[in-house]
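Postdoc handover notes: sequence design on the structure in folder B. Input tokens:
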């Protein structure tokens, strides 16, 4: 078989941008938020191919040809990754992703209870884990992972509210992961969840501290104020004081393992992840919040954001390797006078690949055929197609299996 054009599945979540994704995809915006577009074979939102079939059905009809024997055997004849373009204009929920074991257990329990896959009461929509990696296409801001207890105590000190004094005391008395878990539990557990008034007092204290120029972290005080604008009274706003602020410049990447508490705030980026839609929310969302599930899965061990440095594969390609078997991501740039526009260059990689144009116009070739590629367009390259070559002027991303 040969390469197949993909029509990605678009999601209109309220936090999306009305302009970023339409411009990227070369489509007319409709005034609604376009949050993310999925290029993959997850059964809840698969991409489609030109004859109208779903990509997951295409793979099921010929797993050996589409996935290859090794990938098919390792991942039960399913495409193990999902590629997205994400464009948050407003902050996403404060969330964690479960381990594979926790997801399988929860998925089985909810199936046995008769909950429909699209039920808002569900916690798990599949039985898979969801580690993910984000590569920034524009300046991208986020929160990810807990600070050390002592550093979080410094951030909380002096804000002078009852809630921050209580959190500060927990971390000073027990500057360990146990103390951090107690502080986080204070914010999200239903019996202890602070009132909207208490949250508002913290926000005003952060705003005043930032305005006074005496903040130990002006960036986190700014994040608290921004989060409160979109989610007033939500305790997740205060949880930001316990977390690491992150800013990624274009081309920089961050890996988010299972259990890492995070929230994407603003920007546009490529996400590649295990093929899952399992999200456990702790706050900053109108959707279901499940503090008990979050507390079971979250890692409160202090850790800096896990930035992934790209490795040079060829003069035109770099790769971002995450510590998982489900996916990897590469970027290829066919620009500059040293790159011949009409001479095909070999693109590293093998197996089932999804190639997404980022800018320019190019042509992809395999022994099975050729396919044009422009910004915003995606192509599925079956494993049976073998070596991929490209020529033209532009830049593209390639998701594949390690």
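Designed sequence:
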């Amino acid at each position: 078989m040969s390469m197949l054009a993909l029509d990605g599945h678009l999601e209109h979540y309220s936090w999306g941008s009305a302009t970023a994704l339409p411009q990227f995809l070369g489509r007319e915006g409709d005034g609604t938020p376009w949050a993310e577009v999925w290029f993959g074979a997850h059964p809840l939102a698969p991409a489609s191919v030109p004859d109208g079939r779903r990509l997951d059905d295409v793979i099921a009809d010929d797993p050996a040809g589409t996935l290859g024997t090794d990938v098919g055997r390792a991942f039960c004849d399913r495409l193990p990754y999902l590629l997205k373009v994400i464009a948050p204009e407003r902050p996403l929920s404060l969330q964690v992703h479960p381990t594979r074991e926790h997801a399988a257990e929860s998925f089985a329990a909810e199936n046995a209870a008769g909950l429909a896959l699209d039920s808002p009461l569900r916690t798990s929509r599949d039985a898979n884990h969801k580690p993910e990696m984000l590569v920034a296409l524009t300046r991208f801001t986020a929160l990810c992972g807990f600070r050390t207890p002592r550093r979080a105590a410094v951030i909380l000190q002096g804000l002078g509210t009852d809630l921050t004094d209580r959190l500060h005391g927990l971390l000073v008395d027990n500057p360990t992961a146990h103390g951090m878990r107690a502080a986080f539990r204070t914010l999200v557990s239903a019996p202890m969840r602070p009132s909207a008034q208490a949250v508002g007092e913290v926000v005003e204290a952060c705003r005043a501290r930032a305005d006074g120029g005496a903040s130990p972290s002006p960036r986190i005080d700014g994040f608290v104020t921004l989060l409160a604008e979109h989610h007033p009274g939500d305790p997740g706003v205060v949880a930001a004081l316990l977390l690491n602020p992150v800013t990624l410049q274009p081309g920089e990447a961050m890996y988010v393992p299972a259990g890492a508490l995070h929230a994407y705030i603003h920007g546009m980026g490529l996400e590649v992840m295990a093929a899952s839609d399992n999200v456990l929310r702790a706050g900053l969302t109108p959707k279901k919040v499940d503090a008990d599930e979050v507390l079971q899965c979250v890692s409160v061990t202090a850790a800096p954001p896990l930035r992934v440095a790209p490795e040079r594969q060829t003069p035109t390609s770099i790769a971002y390797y995450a510590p998982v078997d489900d996916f990897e991501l590469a970027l290829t740039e066919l620009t500059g006078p040293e790159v011949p526009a009409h001479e095909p260059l070999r693109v590293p990689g093998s197996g089932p690949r999804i190639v997404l144009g980022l800018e320019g116009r190019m042509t992809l070739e395999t022994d099975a055929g050729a396919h044009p590629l422009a910004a915003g367009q995606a192509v599925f390259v079956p494993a049976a197609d073998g070596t991929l070559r490209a020529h033209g002027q532009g830049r593209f991303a390639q998701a594949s299996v390690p």
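Context for whoever picks this up: The longest strand covers residues 353-366. Don't rerun without checking with the PI first.
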